[in-house]
């Protein structure tokens, strides 16, 4: 069942124009990949003496991997890692991730993208990932709906989520749209925060173990338990956003 927007959020029509583009996060929104990421993160971090839980992987999802590593190394080891040092740990994490079976596309994603395209909106993908094989898979799986230059990755920004930079860049790459013309689809608190900070209407998909309240308190305008539920409700959401 669809959750209602937070009471303190602006009402629809006050802060958003008619939407022109939908920006999707990748892991946990398009792909059921977060369990694999969680295992890979835990294995890699343990090798370097850092305690990292499955919940941590969801709570930090969307941030640049090197930023997450530097943060945890500082907190637990009191070490100030350089970007290159953090990248070496991230490479270990990426190695473990790619040893695991390929994550499936969530039920509802293709249907939702088709509905968005039929509604005349563009599609972009905004991910904190820096793993090139994942980006290549995105273009293979969703090439019907977007081109490679409509994908924003960790390589495109200096500041990752929860900063607004990734979604502002995503708007630019999708067609120089304003934040008020964008819809963000996110599954993680940092990503929800980034979408809201960018000024976009932000949809939360709670595909992980975190409570709904964790996503809503970051400012999500609406929440669905699955991407399938969002796909089934697309027309209703679009109508609310375009109604004057």
Could you say which overall geometry the principal axes of the C-alpha atoms support? globular
Please report the number of helical segments.
11
Radius of gyration: 17 Å
Largest sheet: 6 strands, parallel
The SSE order reads EHHHHHEHEHEHEHEHH
Overall pLDDT, averaged? 89
Counting helices, strands and paired strands, the structural category is alpha/beta
Strand content: 5-15%
How many beta-strand segments?
6
Strand order of the largest sheet: 3-2-1-4-5-6
What are the main properties of this structure?
10% strand; single chain; disordered N terminus; alpha/beta; 6 strands; 11 helices; 244 residues; 6-stranded parallel β-sheet
How would you explain this protein's 3D organization?
With 244 residues, this protein is an alpha/beta fold. 46% of the residues lie in helices and 10% in strands. The protein has 11 helices and 6 strands. Strands 3-2-1-4-5-6 form a 6-stranded parallel sheet. Strand 4, helix 8 and strand 5 form a beta-alpha-beta unit. Helix 1 crosses helix 4 and helix 3 crosses helix 4 (83-99).
Protein topology:
Layout: E1 21-24, H1 34-47, H2 54-59, H3 65-77, H4 83-99, H5 109-118, E2 122-126, H6 132-142, E3 151-152, H7 165-175, E4 182-186, H8 189-198, E5 201-205, H9 212-216, E6 222-224, H10 227-232, H11 234-242
Parallel strand pairs: 1-2, 1-4, 2-3, 4-5, 5-6
């Amino acid at each position: 069942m669809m959750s209602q927007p937070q009471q303190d959020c602006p009402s629809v029509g006050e802060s958003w124009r008619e939407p022109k583009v939908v920006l999707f996060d990748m892991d946990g929104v398009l792909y059921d990949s977060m369990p694999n990421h969680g295992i890979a993160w835990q294995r890699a971090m343990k090798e370097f003496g850092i305690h990292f839980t499955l919940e941590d992987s969801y709570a930090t999802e969307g941030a640049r991997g090197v930023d997450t590593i530097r943060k945890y190394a500082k907190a637990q080891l009191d070490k100030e890692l350089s970007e290159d040092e953090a990248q070496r740990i991230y490479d270990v994490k990426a190695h473990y991730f790619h040893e695991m079976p390929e994550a499936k596309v969530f039920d509802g994603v293709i249907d939702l993208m088709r509905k968005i395209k039929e509604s005349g909106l563009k599609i972009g993908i905004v991910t904190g990932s820096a793993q090139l094989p994942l980006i290549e898979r995105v273009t293979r799986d969703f090439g019907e709906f977007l081109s490679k230059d409509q994908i924003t990755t960790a390589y495109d920004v200096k500041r990752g989520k929860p900063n607004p930079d990734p979604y502002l860049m995503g708007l630019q790459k999708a067609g120089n749209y304003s934040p008020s013309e964008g819809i963000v689809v996110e599954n993680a608190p940092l990503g929800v925060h980034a979408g809201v900070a960018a000024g976009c209407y932000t949809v939360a998909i709670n595909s992980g173990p975190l409570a709904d309240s964790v996503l809503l308190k970051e400012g999500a305008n609406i929440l669905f338990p699955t991407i399938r539920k969002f796909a089934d409700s697309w027309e209703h959401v679009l109508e609310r956003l375009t109604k004057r």
